[in-house]
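Exercise 7 asks you to align residues with tokens for two separate proteins.
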Amino acid sequence: MPQPDLAHLARDLTRIHDAVITGGSPPVQPRALVKRSWDRMLRLGLDPAGGNRRVVAAEADVESRRQRSKLRLIVEEMKSVLLRAPDAASFILVVTDADGVILWRDGATAARRQADSLGFVEGAHWSESVVGTNAIGTALAEEAPVQLFSAEHFESAQHPWYCSAVPVHDPHDGRLLGVVDISGPALTLHPTVQTLVSTAVRLAEARLMIIQQEQLSSLRDRMSAMLQGVHGPALVVDDEGWVAYQQGVKSRERIDVPAPDRSILIPGAGLCLPEKISGGWLLRPSGDRQASVVLRLSRNPAVLEILSDSDPLVVPLTPRHAQILAAVTSAGAAGVSASELSHKLYGDADHVVTVRAEVSRLRRSIGALLATRPYRWAEGVSARVE
């Protein structure tokens, strides 16, 4: 298949871009993906001439984001694969987090210098709402791989570039981790670039799967040896709540991420206070294996009192959170949906988003005592309202 005349294509796209941006009639319509993005930019009031303010995170914030990102585990491998490609002398590799903040950038010196003038640097927020239509921001907005060429970018300053971006997801839970992008001078675009990036992302996701399995296996071996001969139920999870080892309990594959000051209910073990260990958490019963939860609703103040053989745990509640827990308790084992809670709290089904946000805040206080989908007390909890 013959390669397109890139210079001719760039001129055609410029005519289309200029007509659309000025409200004229383009010779042909832009691609559907590009049109959707341009429409978003026009609604936001972004400047196609490139006068949009750049947002660059402080160095400390960038480093903090790197340390929190799982992509730190595979970024060097991606560099070694992508920057050894035959056309690597002309492009740069960029890796962002899920917010579109550039965490790593490497590649051709000349391309890096040109990128500097665009604010395409480490720490820069490269989402659509900041810099207009671009492969990174548009891939985040569309939740799909995106390749843009020349005047398909919204800002005219980005027209001399092509960029190919592919989102990276956590292979275990599907969570968006960030975006991998290759960018370079528009007229150097090779037809295999998008395939190259997509392949690198698939390899990265596979590598992340292997790394986590290795970490869980190491944690399991270490803790099973430590708990050998120790009687009673115990659960060991990694820092994200994935179960590495269980003794005397039957847990699902993942629990809510533990916190040092928040009890978690583990079926078969009762209320457990998480203990931080290297690489994860150890959870063992703190008292009675059957939790008894008493919800006391009073005006001053509303509290949730969790009773067991150990000292009671008292959690202050806002009036709204007390209402939610009262509704959950009255619903019984069948639970209550977000829509039903919206009706109970607000009289209609129009506040589902608000309900979910309130429940999310509530679960930060009481953890897995409150189960979801539907909202209900977790298995092993006996609750009553006083």
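Second protein for Exercise 7:
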Amino acid sequence: MQTRQTERTGPLAGVRVVELAGIGPGPFAAMLLADLGADVVRVDRPGGAGLGVDPAKDLTNRNKRSVLVDLKAPEGPAAVLDLVERADILVEGYRPGVAERLGVGPERCLARNPRLVYGRMTGWGQDGPLAHTAGHDIGYIAVTGALGMIGPDPDGPPTVPANLVGDYAGGSLYLVVGVLAALQHARTYGEGQVVDAAIVDGTAHLTSMIHAMLAAGGWQDRRGSNLLDGGCPFYGVYETSDGGHMAVGALEHRFYAEFARLLDLRDADGLRGDLARWPELREAVAARFRSRTRAEWTEVFEGTDACVAPVLSLREAPGHPHLAARATFVEHGGLVQPAPAPRFSVTPGTLRTGPALPGADTAAVARDWAVPALCPAPDVPPTQESKTA
């Protein structure tokens, strides 16, 4: 059976999403839904989000449409509820209670649309002692134990992994999984629900395998001392002669053997098998990498099973031959950016439009979603005849 393709391709074609504008993991989650084909309408506030990012370059708003609604104005909540009535999913990232105070909380939205999936994105969650306090990615991953295990030095501070682990892995991706699972339930049983996606919950969930290893005695609760946290000399990062770095992940014996051969390590097996000699192995590996440039070592290991790769910068990454061949990065509207992921054989996600500019699509959305309240009729000055009538 052939799947009928439409202008809006992607497995979520036909799904309607309302995004209440915010910052961080909420917009990224909505971008992912949009990349997969959903019609995402972002409800922007007059004056913008206040981050100072040029809206024309905010990639998390690509593939979306934007309308301007002042939720603090008397008519604002009603316009959003009109959108909600026609939506499948709503995404908001306010602190607990804010959406309720604005008149667009779960109770009012589900009363208007009982099949709605109401996705809530927060750091601390909707309840608990810290629910109403401010926070950022670094604090969320700190209290879950995730930050404390990242970094090669057990006696130094942890390494901050940008905001990828908390905001996006523990936050956005769990919100997307949650709302899509709830959408399946809504379409099967006609029952909507609220999805409480907390970054602390998602980040803790990400550490499940490490907790299993800890319980089994295969992981020390001390960073820089384990197989996957830089404690192992053949799973780590080494500096090259030109100040670049190479990433080594030669864990399995056959991969390590290839790594040692290409690096020209002496007594490679003896060093690998004796934990007491791991400091000696680390220094030997470091010395070898310091003898050549990153480009030279890249050429040595290219195409082998040694599991070694150059550490590239954000600007360098799109030029990597493998990523270029797969079009992992694309250019759209003059902006180089990651392509939609993952990939689908029948309903591929597409990069259809650049970042939605605040309010630019208000008229089109009002028409397409049949929500005339988004475009109230302008006040017309009275004519001379009406004045004298």
